[in-house]
């Protein structure tokens, strides 16, 4: 359990940013992982009064506030229509409804957790993040950066990137995943995103044009082999590196065939 010495509901992003410059400060998301720590938080910064809990559907993109919950994403009709239900499929196995009612998109992405279905999903969606000081940048770039004291404000998902298929393997339905996989197509480019390796999700593009002539059983298998060869795997109590490499081939092939169907 953490100990919070001072709790502040920020009145503006500037105030939240200023408060967050102290090393002992923390921005609160859903608190679902933060509360499990054993450290002392000098100032807990709540963004609940800044209007960041909505999903705005624009002509070219979905704009998702940092305080939007995973349950809101899971149930959003526009996102699920655009992705043919892939958003709901990716999020529904995460623990339970009560958990997803609290966990936030911003907290999940800021954490860049190695086990994250959410990071895998949004990397596949070619999302961008909007930081208060850092501005707008691709999520792929943000995921590679070290942690700093900026504030994640929004996620931006272009509608052109919504063609994707999502797969994951869990030992039990609500457990953390053994491996996550999303395959997406945007502007003629096919990319796979593999997470829970166990490590931060990484993007692998079809650099060799294996799917250039379309998705067939053979081309999907070739792409799956290529992806598995590009992604470093590790072992933990959920599975060995060899098992994860096998899963990578299976899930990538399955998602590629679904995408091409």
Automatic annotation (TrEMBL):
FAD-binding PCMH-type domain boundaries: 1-199
This protein's record includes keyword Chloroplast: no
Domain of life of the organism encoding this protein: Bacteria
Family annotation (Pfam families): CO_deh_flav_C, FAD_binding_5
Annotated InterPro entries: CO_DH_flav_C, CO_DH_flav_C_dom_sf, Diverse_Substr_Oxidored, FAD-bd_PCMH, FAD-bd_PCMH-like_sf, FAD-bd_PCMH_sub2, Mopterin_DH_FAD-bd
GO MF term set: FAD binding; oxidoreductase activity
Keywords on record: Flavoprotein, Oxidoreductase
Name listed for the protein in its UniProt record: FAD binding domain-containing protein
């Amino acid at each position: 359990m953490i100990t919070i010495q001072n709790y502040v509901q920020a009145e503006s992003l500037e105030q939240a940013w200023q408060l967050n410059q102290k090393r002992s400060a923390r921005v609160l998301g859903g608190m679902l992982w933060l509360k499990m720590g054993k450290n002392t938080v000098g100032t807990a910064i709540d963004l609940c009064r800044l209007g960041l809990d909505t999903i705005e559907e624009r002509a070219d993109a979905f704009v998702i506030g940092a305080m939007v919950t995973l349950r809101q994403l899971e149930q959003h009709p526009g996102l699920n229509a655009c992705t043919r239900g892939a958003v709901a499929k990716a999020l529904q196995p995460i623990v339970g409804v009560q958990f997803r009612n609290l966990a936030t998109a911003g907290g999940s992405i800021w954490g860049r957790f190695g086990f994250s279905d959410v990071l895998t999903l949004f990397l596949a969606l070619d999302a961008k993040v909007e930081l208060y000081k850092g501005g707008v940048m691709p999520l792929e770039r943000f995921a590679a950066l070290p942690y700093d004291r900026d504030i994640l404000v929004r996620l931006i998902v272009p509608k052109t990137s919504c063609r994707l298929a999502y797969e994951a393997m869990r030992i039990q339905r609500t457990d953390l995943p053994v491996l996550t996989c999303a395959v997406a197509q945007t502007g003629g480019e096919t990319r796979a995103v593999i997470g829970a390796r166990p490590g931060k999700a990484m993007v692998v593009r079809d650099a060799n044009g294996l799917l250039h002539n379309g998705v067939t059983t053979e081309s999907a298998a070739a792409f799956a082999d290529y992806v598995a060869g590009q992604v470093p795997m590790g072992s933990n109590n959920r599975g060995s590196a060899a098992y994860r490499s096998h899963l990578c081939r299976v899930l990538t092939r399955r998602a590629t065939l679904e995408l091409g169907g």
